[in-house]
Design goal:
By secondary structure, this protein is an alpha+beta fold. Helices cover 17% and strands 33% of the residues.
């Protein structure tokens, strides 16, 4: 190898301190460059930002409030936007330096680069301190000023129970539809929801409309008027009425409505409620659904769950043995439980629960031979014959109820204030009865409980809600009860969440 092919590295002295360094465009060492040039000049080392101590949001000027957790990506992005002068340098890295949560300080460690002295790239690391200033966002300011709401939704249903509202409460909690509500008040005949803006109230109404058959009307009240800027401030009230037809209700349709639904029988049973009303003729298995058409010719139930009578199935014979669907038509012989030991009277009927009931089972149904009806409600049935006076609605599990077995799940509840009327003792007792009936519905209906969240008890599987309100004191073993009781599995339960109120 020739000496001319060998590469030698030449060094030069720094023009300021004389330290030997490789040649660079500035002819200075790194220490002298950093002493002569500060690439962070123009970038503030302290920044102030406003934080709402009511809702925990940060103000992003001019008027947007951001909700972000400590040391999250969203908060880091917010902090970088608050630091001015970063456009003059190249941001290489950024991250939080730990500070105490109560210190009202956020420290962001930044690594930046900038070209200095004819192509020399200088990198520097520094910390910017962000000072948190307590403030109130406009929404929390209204709360503190006792002028907290601009729109109110009054949810009502004209029935004697509140099981529908218990179900809606679980749907609201599962889908987080109440996050924009500033307050919730329980009323004797429903629930009131309060919102900051009209748009939040409309969004809540749209959610409710997608869940239950409902109609609403609105009104507004003038609060203030600025004659200089011609600005008006209103308070809006929405009255939302849920259809007064519930699951297991017996309904008498008008002739016009029955013809519109495919010439279904006038006497039908409601077997499901969603944003539509699902009806079935228990004597023919013909089904129909009613959507918003209900409000064009509304009707009400002629018999509800409070009028159910307990029966014992003595014999049952399926009419169509090849039917393996949810409903199966069958001929059944039943007797009232209250008649046992008094008389031998039995009833022959046709039921849609042929694939559920077996001889010896107990069930609930409507005995129309002893029922009292309003003449206007049953007017379409005049001159028409009914196939049977007994309409079987559902299978019951009395032996399982007598076990007094503790439940493994809990239900969440909304944080609600109670009005003076709703706090009365007899109303609270009615609420406890409705809650117990609703929980039993969840236990016996897998489809219904799949729509809500069931939470584990405080002690895992050992947590419980106190079970039933009454019954005999006879002692039973688990082997003696109904083997087909559809009890929820542990896999269906959800872990508890901090801050969640439970029934």
């Amino acid at each position: 190898m020739s000496i001319f092919d060998q590469k030698t590295v030449s060094y030069i002295p720094c023009c300021l301190c004389g330290t030997t360094i490789p040649p660079n465009p500035s002819n200075m060492c790194i220490s002298c460059i950093r002493g002569q040039v500060d690439i962070t000049e123009g970038i503030p080392k302290q920044v102030y930002c406003s934080w709402c101590k009511g809702c925990g949001r940060y103000l992003s000027p001019p008027n947007f409030w951001l909700l972000a957790d400590l040391e999250s990506k969203e908060l880091l992005t917010f902090c970088l936007k608050r630091i001015k002068g970063l456009k003059q340098v190249k941001l290489v890295d950024a991250g939080f330096v730990y500070t105490e949560p109560h210190s009202k300080r956020l420290k962001v460690k930044l690594t930046v680069q900038k070209e200095v002295f004819n192509g020399t790239i200088l990198q520097q690391v520094f910390v910017v301190e962000i000072i948190i200033q307590n403030n109130f966002c406009p929404d929390c300011h209204k709360v503190e000023a006792k002028d907290m709401w601009s729109a109110k939704v009054q949810l009502r249903q004209k029935v004697e129970h509140k099981r529908t509202f218990l179900w809606l409460e679980q749907l609201i909690l599962k889908h987080q539809a109440h996050v924009n509500a500033v307050n919730t008040t329980e009323q004797p005949d429903g629930i009131d929801f309060y919102f900051h803006t009209k748009s939040h109230a409309m969004k809540f109404i749209q959610f409710m409309t997608s869940m239950v058959p409902m109609k609403y009307s609105d009104s507004k009240q003038l609060v203030s008027h600025d004659i200089r800027s011609n600005e008006y401030t209103y308070k809006y009230t929405f009255i939302a009425e849920v259809a007064p037809v519930c699951k297991d209700d017996l309904v008498c349709l008008s002739n016009k409505m029955a013809n519109q639904l495919g010439a279904i029988s006038n006497l039908v049973l409601c077997h499901k409620i969603s944003n539509q009303i699902y009806l079935i003729d228990p004597f023919t298995l013909q089904t129909a659904t009613i959507n918003s058409v209900y409000w064009q010719a509304p009707f009400r139930s002629i018999q509800s769950r409070e009028h159910l009578t307990d029966f014992m199935v003595l014999d049952i014979e399926p009419i169509d043995r090849n039917n393996t669907g949810r409903f199966c038509l069958a001929e059944a012989e039943v007797a009232r439980l209250s008649d046992f030991g008094r008389n031998d009277r039995t009833y022959f009927t046709v039921t849609h629960l042929g694939n559920v009931l077996e001889p010896g089972d107990t069930c609930s149904g409507y005995d129309m031979s002893v029922a009292n009806f309003n003449d206007d409600d049953v007017l379409p049935l005049r001159g028409k014959s009914v196939r049977s006076e007994i309409v079987i609605v559902r299978k019951t599990y009395p032996l399982h109820r007598k076990l007094n077995k503790k439940r493994k799940f809990r239900l969440a509840r909304l944080k609600m204030q109670h009005s003076a009327d709703a706090a009365k003792k007899f109303i609270r007792d009615r609420h406890e009865r409705n809650l117990e009936e609703f929980i039993r519905d969840l236990e016996e209906d897998p489809e219904l409980r799949s729509m809500v969240n069931l939470y584990k008890g405080p002690g895992g599987s050992g947590g419980a809600v106190a079970e039933p309100m009454g019954g005999d004191d006879m002692e039973l073993d688990e082997e003696d009860v109904e083997p087909d009781f559809p009890e929820p599995d542990v896999e269906e339960l959800v872990d508890l969440v901090d801050g969640l109120e439970l029934y």
